[in-house]
Amino acid sequence: MRKIFVYGSLNMDLVITAPFMPHKGETIIGHSFFTNPGGKGANQAVTCGKLGAPTFMIGAVGNDIYGKEVKTNLEKHQVNVEFVDNVEDAMTGVAVIILSEDDNRIIIDSGANYCIKDNLLSECLDKYANEGDIFVTQLEIPKDKVLTGLMKAKEKGLFTIFNPAPISDLDDILFKYSDLVVLNETEAAFLSGLDPNKALSETFKYLSKRGINRSIITLGEKGSVAYIDDEFNYVSAVKVQTVDTTAAGDSYVGALATSIAEGKTIFEAMKFASKVSAITVTRKGAQNSIPTRNEVEAFYQKN
Known about the structure:
This protein is α/β, with parallel strands linked by helices. The chain has one domain (about 5-20, about 35-290): UDP-N-acetylmuramoyl-L-alanine:D-glutamate ligase. About 35% of the residues lie in helices and about 25% in strands. It is built from 10 helices and 13 strands. Helix 1 (about 40-50) crosses helix 8, helix 6 crosses helix 7 (about 200-210) and helix 8 runs antiparallel to helix 9 (about 265-280). The radius of gyration is 18 Å and the shape is globular. The model has no long low-confidence stretch (mean pLDDT about 95).
Protein backbone atom coordinates (compact mmCIF):
# COMPACT_ATOMS: atom_id res chain seq x y z
CA MET A 1 0.00 0.00 0.00
CA ARG A 2 1.24 3.46 -0.86
CA LYS A 3 1.90 6.07 1.83
CA ILE A 4 -0.18 9.21 2.36
CA PHE A 5 1.31 12.61 3.25
CA VAL A 6 -1.10 15.23 4.60
CA TYR A 7 0.16 18.82 4.59
CA GLY A 8 -2.21 21.12 6.44
CA SER A 9 -3.91 22.36 9.55
CA LEU A 10 -4.25 21.07 13.09
CA ASN A 11 -6.85 22.66 15.37
CA MET A 12 -8.68 22.12 18.60
CA ASP A 13 -12.43 22.31 18.02
CA LEU A 14 -14.63 24.01 20.64
CA VAL A 15 -18.14 22.76 19.93
CA ILE A 16 -21.54 23.81 21.27
CA THR A 17 -25.08 22.91 20.19
CA ALA A 18 -27.73 25.63 19.85
CA PRO A 19 -31.49 25.48 19.16
CA PHE A 20 -30.97 28.00 16.34
CA MET A 21 -28.29 30.35 15.05
CA PRO A 22 -28.25 33.55 17.14
CA HIS A 23 -28.89 36.87 15.48
CA LYS A 24 -26.67 39.96 15.77
CA GLY A 25 -26.38 41.01 19.42
CA GLU A 26 -28.41 38.03 20.63
CA THR A 27 -27.43 35.67 23.46
CA ILE A 28 -29.02 32.24 23.59
CA ILE A 29 -28.63 29.17 25.79
CA GLY A 30 -26.76 26.29 24.20
CA HIS A 31 -25.83 22.84 25.49
CA SER A 32 -23.56 19.80 25.08
CA PHE A 33 -20.27 21.73 24.91
CA PHE A 34 -17.15 19.65 24.26
CA THR A 35 -13.64 19.93 22.84
CA ASN A 36 -12.33 17.64 20.10
CA PRO A 37 -9.12 17.60 18.02
CA GLY A 38 -9.79 18.88 14.51
CA GLY A 39 -8.42 20.92 11.63
CA LYS A 40 -8.94 19.89 8.03
CA GLY A 41 -5.45 18.48 7.63
CA ALA A 42 -5.51 16.54 10.89
CA ASN A 43 -9.05 15.28 10.24
CA GLN A 44 -8.00 13.91 6.86
CA ALA A 45 -4.85 12.35 8.32
CA VAL A 46 -6.80 10.70 11.14
CA THR A 47 -9.27 9.31 8.59
CA CYS A 48 -6.40 7.72 6.66
CA GLY A 49 -4.87 6.36 9.86
CA LYS A 50 -8.16 4.92 11.13
CA LEU A 51 -8.71 3.22 7.77
CA GLY A 52 -5.29 1.57 7.90
CA ALA A 53 -3.16 3.70 5.58
CA PRO A 54 0.48 4.53 6.49
CA THR A 55 0.02 8.27 7.07
CA PHE A 56 2.32 11.23 7.77
CA MET A 57 1.11 14.60 9.07
CA ILE A 58 3.08 17.74 8.25
CA GLY A 59 2.11 20.95 10.05
CA ALA A 60 2.45 23.00 13.22
CA VAL A 61 0.87 23.41 16.64
CA GLY A 62 1.54 25.73 19.56
CA ASN A 63 3.55 24.69 22.57
CA ASP A 64 0.39 24.44 24.68
CA ILE A 65 -2.06 21.91 26.07
CA TYR A 66 -4.16 21.87 22.88
CA GLY A 67 -1.09 21.18 20.75
CA LYS A 68 -0.10 18.23 22.92
CA GLU A 69 -3.61 16.80 22.78
CA VAL A 70 -3.88 17.18 19.00
CA LYS A 71 -0.55 15.38 18.43
CA THR A 72 -1.37 12.65 20.92
CA ASN A 73 -4.67 11.97 19.17
CA LEU A 74 -2.91 11.68 15.81
CA GLU A 75 -0.44 9.19 17.25
CA LYS A 76 -3.32 7.25 18.81
CA HIS A 77 -4.63 6.67 15.29
CA GLN A 78 -1.26 5.59 13.87
CA VAL A 79 -0.40 8.89 12.18
CA ASN A 80 3.30 9.80 12.10
CA VAL A 81 3.79 13.23 13.75
CA GLU A 82 7.57 13.49 13.36
CA PHE A 83 7.05 16.55 11.15
CA VAL A 84 4.42 18.34 13.24
CA ASP A 85 6.37 21.29 14.63
CA ASN A 86 5.86 22.87 18.07
CA VAL A 87 5.81 26.65 17.61
CA GLU A 88 6.84 28.76 20.61
CA ASP A 89 5.32 32.11 19.65
CA ALA A 90 1.83 31.05 18.51
CA MET A 91 -1.10 29.17 19.99
CA THR A 92 -2.50 25.98 18.48
CA GLY A 93 -5.22 26.73 15.92
CA VAL A 94 -8.76 26.83 17.27
CA ALA A 95 -12.14 26.32 15.58
CA VAL A 96 -15.30 27.51 17.32
CA ILE A 97 -18.19 25.41 16.03
CA ILE A 98 -21.91 26.00 16.52
CA LEU A 99 -24.16 23.05 15.75
CA SER A 100 -27.79 23.79 14.94
CA GLU A 101 -30.55 22.18 12.88
CA ASP A 102 -28.33 19.42 11.43
CA ASP A 103 -25.76 21.96 10.19
CA ASN A 104 -22.84 23.97 11.52
CA ARG A 105 -21.15 27.36 11.50
CA ILE A 106 -17.39 27.49 12.06
CA ILE A 107 -15.00 30.34 13.01
CA ILE A 108 -11.25 29.61 12.88
CA ASP A 109 -8.25 31.22 14.56
CA SER A 110 -5.37 29.81 12.49
CA GLY A 111 -2.69 30.29 15.14
CA ALA A 112 0.33 28.04 14.57
CA ASN A 113 -1.06 26.80 11.26
CA TYR A 114 0.32 29.99 9.70
CA CYS A 115 3.78 29.38 11.17
CA ILE A 116 4.77 26.20 9.33
CA LYS A 117 8.50 26.06 8.59
CA ASP A 118 9.44 25.56 4.93
CA ASN A 119 11.94 22.80 5.67
CA LEU A 120 9.40 20.46 7.29
CA LEU A 121 7.78 19.35 4.05
CA SER A 122 11.06 18.82 2.18
CA GLU A 123 12.57 16.84 5.04
CA CYS A 124 9.51 14.60 5.33
CA LEU A 125 9.22 13.86 1.60
CA ASP A 126 12.97 13.34 1.21
CA LYS A 127 13.00 10.86 4.09
CA TYR A 128 9.82 8.87 3.48
CA ALA A 129 8.15 9.55 0.11
CA ASN A 130 8.35 7.32 -2.95
CA GLU A 131 7.02 7.83 -6.44
CA GLY A 132 3.31 7.00 -6.57
CA ASP A 133 2.59 7.92 -2.94
CA ILE A 134 -0.34 10.24 -2.18
CA PHE A 135 -0.11 13.92 -1.16
CA VAL A 136 -3.12 15.75 0.30
CA THR A 137 -3.45 19.44 1.14
CA GLN A 138 -6.12 22.08 1.86
CA LEU A 139 -6.37 25.84 2.50
CA GLU A 140 -6.17 26.25 6.28
CA ILE A 141 -2.46 26.96 5.89
CA PRO A 142 -1.00 29.84 3.80
CA LYS A 143 -1.60 29.58 0.04
CA ASP A 144 2.10 29.95 -0.75
CA LYS A 145 2.80 26.91 1.46
CA VAL A 146 0.08 24.96 -0.34
CA LEU A 147 1.56 25.79 -3.74
CA THR A 148 5.07 24.90 -2.59
CA GLY A 149 3.73 21.63 -1.20
CA LEU A 150 1.97 20.69 -4.42
CA MET A 151 5.04 21.55 -6.50
CA LYS A 152 7.43 19.55 -4.31
CA ALA A 153 5.07 16.59 -4.23
CA LYS A 154 4.85 16.56 -8.03
CA GLU A 155 8.64 16.80 -8.28
CA LYS A 156 8.78 13.61 -6.18
CA GLY A 157 6.25 11.88 -8.42
CA LEU A 158 3.43 11.83 -5.88
CA PHE A 159 -0.29 11.79 -6.77
CA THR A 160 -1.60 15.14 -5.49
CA ILE A 161 -5.08 15.74 -4.08
CA PHE A 162 -6.07 19.36 -3.49
CA ASN A 163 -9.10 20.20 -1.33
CA PRO A 164 -9.56 24.00 -1.72
CA ALA A 165 -11.29 24.61 1.59
CA PRO A 166 -12.03 27.01 3.08
CA ILE A 167 -12.49 28.54 -0.35
CA SER A 168 -11.13 31.95 -1.34
CA ASP A 169 -9.74 33.64 -4.45
CA LEU A 170 -7.16 31.28 -5.97
CA ASP A 171 -4.47 31.51 -8.61
CA ASP A 172 -4.97 28.83 -11.25
CA ILE A 173 -1.34 27.75 -10.88
CA LEU A 174 -2.46 25.73 -7.83
CA PHE A 175 -4.49 23.49 -10.13
CA LYS A 176 -1.54 22.94 -12.47
CA TYR A 177 0.11 20.76 -9.81
CA SER A 178 -3.10 19.04 -8.65
CA ASP A 179 -3.87 15.57 -10.02
CA LEU A 180 -7.32 15.63 -8.41
CA VAL A 181 -9.33 18.53 -6.98
CA VAL A 182 -12.08 17.70 -4.48
CA LEU A 183 -14.69 20.42 -3.81
CA ASN A 184 -18.08 20.68 -2.20
CA GLU A 185 -20.94 22.47 -3.96
CA THR A 186 -20.19 25.82 -2.28
CA GLU A 187 -16.53 25.74 -3.33
CA ALA A 188 -17.42 24.71 -6.87
CA ALA A 189 -19.91 27.58 -7.10
CA PHE A 190 -17.31 30.06 -5.81
CA LEU A 191 -14.71 29.02 -8.38
CA SER A 192 -17.10 28.77 -11.32
CA GLY A 193 -19.78 31.33 -10.58
CA LEU A 194 -22.35 28.60 -11.31
CA ASP A 195 -24.62 26.51 -9.10
CA PRO A 196 -23.61 22.85 -9.58
CA ASN A 197 -27.06 21.78 -8.41
CA LYS A 198 -28.60 23.55 -11.40
CA ALA A 199 -25.82 23.47 -14.01
CA LEU A 200 -23.52 20.58 -13.16
CA SER A 201 -21.96 19.89 -16.56
CA GLU A 202 -21.45 23.61 -17.17
CA THR A 203 -19.77 23.91 -13.77
CA PHE A 204 -17.30 21.13 -14.62
CA LYS A 205 -16.63 22.70 -18.03
CA TYR A 206 -15.85 26.06 -16.42
CA LEU A 207 -13.56 24.38 -13.89
CA SER A 208 -11.76 22.72 -16.82
CA LYS A 209 -11.10 26.14 -18.31
CA ARG A 210 -9.30 27.01 -15.08
CA GLY A 211 -7.09 23.95 -15.43
CA ILE A 212 -9.13 21.59 -13.24
CA ASN A 213 -9.46 18.60 -15.56
CA ARG A 214 -9.92 15.94 -12.88
CA SER A 215 -12.33 16.91 -10.15
CA ILE A 216 -14.98 15.66 -7.76
CA ILE A 217 -17.86 17.77 -6.50
CA THR A 218 -19.60 16.52 -3.36
CA LEU A 219 -23.28 17.45 -3.14
CA GLY A 220 -24.20 16.45 0.41
CA GLU A 221 -27.25 14.20 0.55
CA LYS A 222 -27.40 14.23 -3.26
CA GLY A 223 -24.13 12.29 -3.53
CA SER A 224 -20.98 13.15 -5.47
CA VAL A 225 -20.00 13.55 -9.11
CA ALA A 226 -16.61 13.20 -10.77
CA TYR A 227 -15.40 14.60 -14.07
CA ILE A 228 -12.23 12.69 -14.95
CA ASP A 229 -10.66 12.99 -18.40
CA ASP A 230 -13.99 13.95 -20.06
CA GLU A 231 -15.90 11.17 -18.28
CA PHE A 232 -18.66 11.73 -15.72
CA ASN A 233 -19.38 9.39 -12.81
CA TYR A 234 -22.10 9.73 -10.19
CA VAL A 235 -22.17 8.09 -6.76
CA SER A 236 -25.34 8.36 -4.71
CA ALA A 237 -25.21 9.34 -1.05
CA VAL A 238 -25.86 6.77 1.65
CA LYS A 239 -29.08 7.50 3.54
CA VAL A 240 -28.42 8.08 7.25
CA GLN A 241 -29.75 10.22 10.09
CA THR A 242 -27.50 13.30 10.23
CA VAL A 243 -26.31 14.42 13.67
CA ASP A 244 -23.26 16.61 12.90
CA THR A 245 -21.69 17.43 9.52
CA THR A 246 -18.46 18.89 10.94
CA ALA A 247 -15.94 16.38 9.51
CA ALA A 248 -18.01 15.01 6.63
CA GLY A 249 -15.92 16.55 3.86
CA ASP A 250 -12.61 15.77 5.54
CA SER A 251 -13.52 12.12 6.11
CA TYR A 252 -14.54 11.92 2.45
CA VAL A 253 -11.17 13.25 1.29
CA GLY A 254 -9.24 11.01 3.69
CA ALA A 255 -11.19 7.91 2.68
CA LEU A 256 -10.77 8.81 -0.99
CA ALA A 257 -6.99 9.13 -0.55
CA THR A 258 -6.84 5.83 1.34
CA SER A 259 -8.74 3.96 -1.35
CA ILE A 260 -6.53 5.42 -4.10
CA ALA A 261 -3.45 4.46 -2.06
CA GLU A 262 -4.80 0.90 -2.06
CA GLY A 263 -4.81 0.90 -5.85
CA LYS A 264 -8.51 1.54 -6.41
CA THR A 265 -9.76 3.71 -9.27
CA ILE A 266 -11.08 7.17 -8.47
CA PHE A 267 -14.63 5.99 -9.15
CA GLU A 268 -14.21 3.02 -6.77
CA ALA A 269 -12.65 5.34 -4.20
CA MET A 270 -15.69 7.65 -4.39
CA LYS A 271 -18.02 4.84 -3.36
CA PHE A 272 -15.89 4.00 -0.34
CA ALA A 273 -15.52 7.68 0.62
CA SER A 274 -19.31 8.12 0.51
CA LYS A 275 -19.74 5.26 2.97
CA VAL A 276 -17.14 6.67 5.36
CA SER A 277 -18.54 10.21 5.33
CA ALA A 278 -22.07 8.88 5.83
CA ILE A 279 -21.04 7.19 9.08
CA THR A 280 -19.16 10.32 10.16
CA VAL A 281 -22.26 12.54 10.06
CA THR A 282 -24.17 10.18 12.35
CA ARG A 283 -21.83 11.15 15.22
CA LYS A 284 -20.88 14.37 16.98
CA GLY A 285 -17.42 15.92 16.73
CA ALA A 286 -14.61 15.86 14.22
CA GLN A 287 -11.96 13.17 14.62
CA ASN A 288 -13.89 11.09 17.15
CA SER A 289 -16.77 10.83 14.66
CA ILE A 290 -14.61 9.29 11.92
CA PRO A 291 -15.02 5.49 11.68
CA THR A 292 -12.30 2.84 11.66
CA ARG A 293 -12.05 0.29 8.86
CA ASN A 294 -13.74 -2.34 11.05
CA GLU A 295 -16.58 0.05 11.87
CA VAL A 296 -17.13 0.78 8.17
CA GLU A 297 -17.30 -2.91 7.32
CA ALA A 298 -19.57 -3.71 10.28
CA PHE A 299 -21.93 -0.83 9.53
CA TYR A 300 -22.51 -1.89 5.95
CA GLN A 301 -22.88 -5.56 6.78
CA LYS A 302 -25.60 -4.60 9.25
CA ASN A 303 -27.30 -2.19 6.83
